[in-house]
Design goal:
globular, ligase
């Protein structure tokens, strides 16, 4: 696994924290985190790639291709800012270059899999196809996640892309009934294994604590020790 694309079923569901956990579990390896399009931040503000490096540790190289100030889909944010959008071939070229210098490259998308990069309709899925890279899907735990996860997995299959698995981006300390049932049902919806669950609030931990605990949130396939719990 040299390049892994991290996408999700929507926005604000824990993609950055899951990306950080995967990076932290790869301690001892050279890891790069590539954020193709960072939206909603002004120049100089730390973005998602920098947050991954803060949480995961000094072995992580954060890279951002483009930044657009408004918190919108990349294509819309680029158009409104009067800036060139990110193109899938640029993402693929950057990831391939990083892969020559690192053991693992994590490409973190913005929003969901099919959020537009440009006005021609290019998406993160197109970049994953150019890279022939598997996609790790981040999903919420609660009600509604099964449909969104199934749709994302279907979109991957339709494009001939591999779904490496699903990770719950924010699992509450006391999961409700829907969340408990979804732990069992998510792999069925995705047609791929459940590969971890990051506890709610993990992103607020100090970096050293986060890095020390991350392996316990991820399955062995992602370098961790997590097993599917009985909730």
């Amino acid at each position: 696994m040299t390049v892994l694309v991290v996408s999700g079923t929507g926005t604000e569901i824990g993609k950055t924290v899951v990306t950080a956990a995967v990076a932290a579990a790869a301690r001892g390896r050279r890891v790069a985190v590539l954020k193709p399009a960072q939206t909603g931040l002004a120049p100089g503000e730390p973005g998602d790639a920098a947050e991954v490096a803060r949480l995961a540790g000094a072995h992580v190289t954060p890279v951002e291709l483009a930044r657009f100030p408004e918190p919108l889909a990349p294509a819309t944010a680029a158009r409104r800012a009067g800036l060139d959008p990110v193109r899938p071939y640029e993402v693929a070229e950057a990831a391939q270059k990083l892969a020559t210098e690192h053991d693992l490259v994590l490409v973190e998308g913005a929003g969901g899999l099919l959020v537009r990069f440009d006005d021609e309709g290019a998406t993160l899925a197109d970049a994953a196809r150019l890279l022939a890279a598997p996609v790790l899907v981040v999903a919420p735990a609660g009600l509604g996640t099964l449909n969104a996860t199934a749709l994302t997995a279907e979109a991957l299959r339709t494009r001939g892309l591999e779904c490496r698995g699903v990770v719950v981006g924010s699992l509450p300390d006391r999961p409700d009934l829907a969340s408990r049932c979804n732990i069992e049902d998510l792999p069925v919806a995705a047609g791929a294994p459940l590969l971890g669950a990051v506890p709610a609030g993990a992103g607020a931990l100090p970096g050293a604590d986060f890095a020390a605990r991350a392996a316990g949130w991820l399955a062995p396939e992602l370098g961790g020790t997590w097993r599917v719990p009985s909730l």
